[in-house]
Amino acid sequence: MDDRGLAGDGSIAREGALDSVPAVFAPVVTAAQAHIAAALASDRLHSVYLYGSVPRGSAIPGVSDLDMLIALRDEPTDADLATVRAIEADLDRDFPQIRGAGILLDSTRSLLSERERHDDGFFVACLCTPLLGEDLARYLPRYRPTSRLARDTNGDLAAMLVRWSARAAGSTTARERTALTRTLARRIVRTGFTLIMPAWGGWTSDLYRSAALFGHYYPGRSRQMQITAATARTPTTDPEVISMLIDDLGPWLAAEYTAVHGEKMSHP
């Protein structure tokens, strides 16, 4: 993989690997795999994946989350969601080296659908590390840093800002505001990066590098994006930062994104 995150054919290389998991996080991964295999019936469980800093090898004990995706053969039920929440709680309780466990749940049908081909499909094929079961990436294409990929992954920022604004208005505790700013900041940095991704011609999941690359193309917004990347790592309850994200940088970025790449089509 070259410095721009590309394979030899120019497609985006898959990031992360099981042998890149830091030793301190290996027991967490092993326990998570065991919990999932025991809790979900084999005739329903298709595959399990790691993603984020743990399989990339950049996780920091006590700071990083354990992020996972479970693909089921059928659509997830309320019982499945309850099972996953219980697994998350067990991992949070037993392993202080993670700030928290976050497990996404989806069906193979959705992940492989045409409407998700350049969103969730890209996520599985390029950003997820197989942990258990058959790898769905074998059924997905090789992805390149195109405008279509940008549009389908992050072209819905304007709609997300409406939800985040309502969430900010209803946040009454420091914990709620901290969680909101982390979500906001991570998404805005990634949207800023995918805005310039086709022009740069590569891929990175590193938030600080994403912010720096964005700044080369939009120097007038560089400082704001640097603050946003720092907020993604160390969330804040500062109302000025939240306002900057929701009322200033966010709306500007959404408008610029639509002008450059178009808006992601909504699906029922």
UniProtKB/TrEMBL annotation:
InterPro entries reported in the protein's UniProt record: NT_sf
Gene3D superfamilies documented for this protein: Beta Polymerase, domain 2
Name assigned to this protein: Nucleotidyltransferase-like protein
Native organism: Haloactinospora alba
